[in-house]
Amino acid sequence: MDSLHVLKETLKSGVEEKKSIETLFLRLKKEKLGEEEEKEARKVLLCLFRHYRSLSFETLNLAPFPSESDGFFASLSLLGLLRYSFLKKDVSGSFYELLQECGFEGDKEKLYASISEESKHPFVIPEEVKKAPYYYPSLRFEVPEFLFRRLCQDYGREEAFAIASSLEKRSSFLYESYEEGKNPLSLKEMRLSEFDTVYPSERPLGKENTDLYFPVSYVKSKGASEIPLPPLGPSILLISPKSFALPLHFALKTKDSFHADCDVTVESFSLYRKLMDTHYQKAIEGLHVYQSAPKYVKTSLHYDSYDAVIYEGEDSGIGRARLHPEVLASLKEKDFEEAGKKQLEDLVEAAQFVKDGGTLLFTNNALDNEETTSLVSSFLKREKRFRKLKDELILPTSSLFDSGYLALFTKEPKK
C-alpha cells in the first residue's frame, strides 16, 4: 500500500475511532513503507492532525464530498501530503484509485490539479470568515468551533482566546520525538534510582533536561502528591488510570510511607500488560494489578477498605491536546455529555471503596464545566458523606505541560 492510501486510512482511524498517535504510528510501521517513506508519513500525519480544521475548510471548498466521508479523507490527505511532504513523488495515480473506490464520477484530473495548486500556498483565512464569532477563532487556533463556543460560555471570550491560543502551542521537543517515531513520554527513557520519590514539576520540556523528566501528567501527579496518607501501611486504589506511568509514580511516591499497598485496576488488556511488565522490571513491592472496568471492580475488591482512592476520569481530553494532536481532530460535541455521564457514574462507584476518614481524588484532563465543577456538584448531591477538601482547574494558560481538573474529597464517618 502506498503512502497516500496509508495516510488516508490512518487519519480516518484517528478521527473516527479516536486512536492515539502512538497507536497510529504502530499502524504506519506495520505497513512497511520503507524508512524514508515511514518518516515522511509520520511528519505528514502530525501536520494533518495539527492543521485539521484549516485543511478541512480548504478540502470542503475544493472537493465535492461531505465532511468525514472517504472522499473527504482522501482529498484532505492529498492536500496535506502535497503541502507538507519532503519526498516529492507523483501520487496522482494513487489519488485516482481512491476516488474510484469512493465511486467518484467527476473529473479526477481536474480535482487533483485544483488540490495540487492549493497545496502550493499557505492557508489564509478568508475575510468574510473573520466576522464569524466562533468559526474564525476555530480556524485561527485549530480548535473545533463548538469547543471555542463552549469555552466562551464557561470563561468569557477573552479567556477563551487565551486558552485556545495556549492549546495550539506545541513543544518542539515533543514533535521532533514524534516525527522520529518515538514516544517522548515513554517509561523506557525514565531514569530513577531505587529510592527516588517523584513530585510534580512544571519544568518545561527540552533536550537539555529530558533525563530529569518523569513521564506523568502534571495534573495527575499534582493531585496524587497532595493526598494525605497514614505513615504506616496505607492502602491505595487507583481506578482506570489511562497512563500506566501513574500507578508507578504513585507507588514511588508512597515510599515515604511504610509498607504501602497499591491496587490498580485497568480496563484495557494492552495497558494491563504494559503495567505488569513495568511492575516486574522496576520490582516495586506492594503493587497489585487487576484488569476490570470500573463498574466491575467490586467483584475483585472490597468496598470501604482503602485510605485513598484515585479515579482518573475518561474525559474529552482537551487538556492533553499539546501532547496529543489527534485529540482536537477527533473531538465531537456529544463527547462532552457522554464523558460527563460516564465519569459521574464511575466516580460514584469509586467512592464506595473509600473507608471512613479516607480520601478520594478525582482527576481528568477536561476544561469544560460539564466535566469538572458541574460534575463534582452532582457527585456531592448523591454522596452526602463526602466533603470536598479542595478543587483546582489548571488551565493551559498557566501550565507548561498538560492541563485539567482535580478535586479532593474526604469521607465523613457515619453519624
Considering the chains and any ligands shown, give keywords for the structure.
Rossmann fold; 17 helices; 7 strands; elongated; 2 domains; alpha/beta; 415 residues
How large is the radius of gyration? 23 Å
Distance between the termini: 67 Å
Q: Could you list the spans in which at least 5 consecutive residues all have pLDDT below 50?
A: 187-214
Structural class: alpha/beta
- Tell me what portion of residues adopts beta-strand conformation: 5-15%
**How does the major sheet shape up?**
7 strands, mixed
Binned, the helix content reads 40-55%
Average predicted confidence as pLDDT: 85
Q: In order across it, which strands form the biggest sheet? A: 3-2-1-4-5-7-6
Strand segment count: 7
CATH fourth-tier homologous superfamily of the largest domain? Vaccinia Virus protein VP39
Indicate the overall shape.
elongated
Order of helices and strands: HHHHHHHHHHHHEHEHEEHHEHEE
The overall number of domains is 2
Number of helices: 17
Q: What is the CATH top level name of the largest domain?
A: Alpha Beta
The CATH architecture term of the largest domain is: 3-Layer(aba) Sandwich
